[in-house]
Structures are given as C-alpha cells and as structure tokens.
Amino acid sequence: MRKTHIVILDAHVANPGYYSWEQLAEFGSYEVWERSEGEAEILSRAAEAEIVLVNKVCLSREILMNLPRLRMVSILATGYNVIDMQTANELGIQVCNVPNYSTSSVAQHVFALLLALKNHTCSYTQAVEQGDWCRSPDFALLREPIEELEGLRMGIVGYGAIGRSVAKIAAAFGMQVLVYSRSKKEQPGLSFVSWPELLAQSDVLSLHCPLSEETAGMINAESLAQMKKGAVLINTARGGLLDEAAVAAALQRGVLSAAALDVLSVEPPRADNPLLHAPNCLVTPHVAWAGMRARRRLLDISFANIRGYLQGNTPNRVN
After folding, report:
1. Number of domains in the chain
2. Would you call 267 a catalytic residue per the annotation?
3. Residue 30 CB neighbours (<10 A)
4. Fewer beta carbons below 10 Å: N end or C end of the chain?
5. 255-273 pLDDT, tens per residue?
6. Are residues 40 and 189 in the same domain?
7. Measuring CA to CA, which residue among 160, 250, 173, 176 is closest to residue 210?
8. Does the pTM exceed 0.70?
9. CA gap 39, 62 in Å, rounded
C-alpha cells in the first residue's frame, strides 16, 4: 500500500483526546488540527494533503479549486453537506462518509431525554440536593406526576437505522409505534401512517429524518396545531426541522407538554434562541451521537475509508 499525506482540519469535536490518531501513520504522514477557521487557514494547512478529514469545516468550490493535490475527502460524520459535491465531482475528488456509526448512541439519547421528561429526574434530583426530601413528612417526596411509557403512542418520523432502533426500544417499553416514512417496511408491532395521522395520534413525536427542502421547518405552527394536545416533541436529527419560534409558542400555550432537543438551527446557539428559555424544554448540546463506542466506530470506519482508497476500492463513497 502506497503512502500519502493526510490532514485533519477539525479533530477536536470528533475526538477530543479520547483516542489516538497514531493509526494514521499506517498510511503515511499526517497533521492534526483541533480547529480550522477561514479560507486562508484551511488552504494553508491542506495545501500538501492528498487526503483531508473534516467534520464541520466547509470545503467550498473556491477551496476545492485551490487544493490541486487533494484527491479524497473523508468526512468524520454521516452527512456530507459541508462539501461542494458538484465541484468534487468535477475535480475527481472522492468523498466518503461514516454511515450508521452513532445509531445506538442516538437511540439511547432519545430515551434518556424522554425518561428525564416523564420521570422528572432532574427536578426530583434537584429537590433532594436542596434538602426537600430531608424535610418531607413522608417517606416519598411526590411532586410532578410520573408518567409510564407503556401504552403511549411513539410517533417516529423517518425509518432509517436510527428510526428503526428507536422503534425497537419503544416497543420494549410497551409503547405503540407509529411511523411516517417514504419507505414502508412493514413489521409486526408497528403501523405506517400518514403525516396527519401521525401528528394527531402520537403522544411522543421523535424526528429521525434528514434536513432537506422538503423537511425544513416541518414542525411549524400548522403541524403543531394538528398534534395531539399535550404531546412531547423530541428532536435528535437536525435543528432546521423545527420552526423554533412556533415550538416555543406551543410550549408556552401548553399545546406541547414538553420538548427535548439535542439540536438547534444555529450551533452553538445564540443566547436569544426562544427554545433556551421555553418552559418544559430540555436541551442538550448536540451530544446524542457522541457515545464513546460511537466515537471509536467513527474513527475505525474513517481509517477503513482511507485504507480502501489507497488500495483502490474506497468504501462508503458518496459520489
């Protein structure tokens, strides 16, 4: 296998020191940059690279046109919208991604959020820390009502790997599973329904579809008005699926009883994002994908992408 030069332009989020990059030495020389900002810095750092690894660094047409040595981009993620694919195709630059590495991690996070909402874990823990249980006249400190998942309807938007994993876990909790998806793969224990039916019947609505022109803002004032009153909204997919002001208003009015979100439209968010201050809204900082095993899989598949490319058979190629 021949040797090459590899540059990682934004290594920190994908691997903030948990694992070593030394395996890249198998392929030749490499440089690891924690973050890269601005066109000039990107061009300077990637100038000698045949292979570039990126997570959220955008490789625009202008950047790709000015990296004549670049022949392969391996994205440290599943989505590849950070790459100008048309230009990559024109220049013969191979682009590959890492599919399905975080399926278990994201599905687990969905239920960590849902259980936190239904069991009120955070507020009960805070009450204990504040000494309220010590002062309680009863053996149990009962405040917010705890709602069991069994028997509730879990509505899932999108039935890819993550949607299927969420459906499996929901069924294990005794939930009824409803699915809205373009691809219908009938399975025992779940029902494929129309979009209006999903909105009207779901006690919990969990989003697992990509962000596209068709899905952008799909949760808006109109769709929220069709949802079952008091439903819970969960979004671990993409922030742009929501009209955030409309969701905040629905929480204020009690149309939604709660929301749990791991993604927002702008990340890091601005301090005035309405969902950061909405009632009964649990927000985590885009970490659903970031389980330790998921990060290990992300690196292992990325290394396999590079190895395959150098051997003439690039896996996970998206162009």
Report:
1. 2
2. yes
3. 20
4. N
5. 999 999 999 999 999 999 9
6. no
7. 160
8. yes
9. 9
Query: Residue 129 corresponds to which amino acid?
Result: E
The residue from 45, 286, 307, 317 that is catalytic is 286
Specify if 128 maps to a domain: yes
Is residue 315 assigned to a domain?
Answer: no
Residues 257 and 114 in one domain: yes
pLDDT in tens, 109-150: 999 999 999 999 999 999 999 999 999 999 999 999 999 999
On whether residue 318 sits in a domain, the answer given is: no
**Domain enclosing residue 47, as ranges:** 4-101+292-310
User: Does 227 share its domain with 304?
Assistant: no
Q: Which of 222, 253, 267, 293 is catalytic?
A: 267
**Backbone torsion region of residue 200, taken as left when φ is above 0, otherwise alpha when ψ lies between -120 and 50, otherwise beta:** alpha
Residue predicted with more confidence, 219 or 185: 219
Task: Count helices and strands (H / E) in the chain.
Answer: 10, 12
In sequence order, the β-bridge partners of residue 154 are 177, 204
Owner of token pair 């004549």:
68
Catalytic residue among 153, 208, 238, 295: 238
Query: Is residue 286 among the annotated active site residues?
Result: yes
- Same domain membership, residue 229 and residue 163: yes
What does the alpha-carbon distance between residue 194 and residue 101 come to, in Å, rounded to a whole number?
Answer: 29
Tell me how far apart the alpha carbons of residues 285 and 267 are, in angstroms, rounded to a whole number. Answer: 8
pLDDT band at residue 310 using 50, 70 and 90 as cut-offs: very high
286: tokens are: 């885009």
Q: What is the CATH number of the domain that holds 126?
A: 3.40.50.720
Using an 8 Å Cβ cutoff, are 264 and 273 in contact? yes
How far apart CA 204 and CA 301 sit, in angstroms, is: 33
The C-alpha atoms of residue 14 and residue 292 are separated, in whole angstroms, by 10
Q: Is the domain of 60 the same as that of 171?
A: no
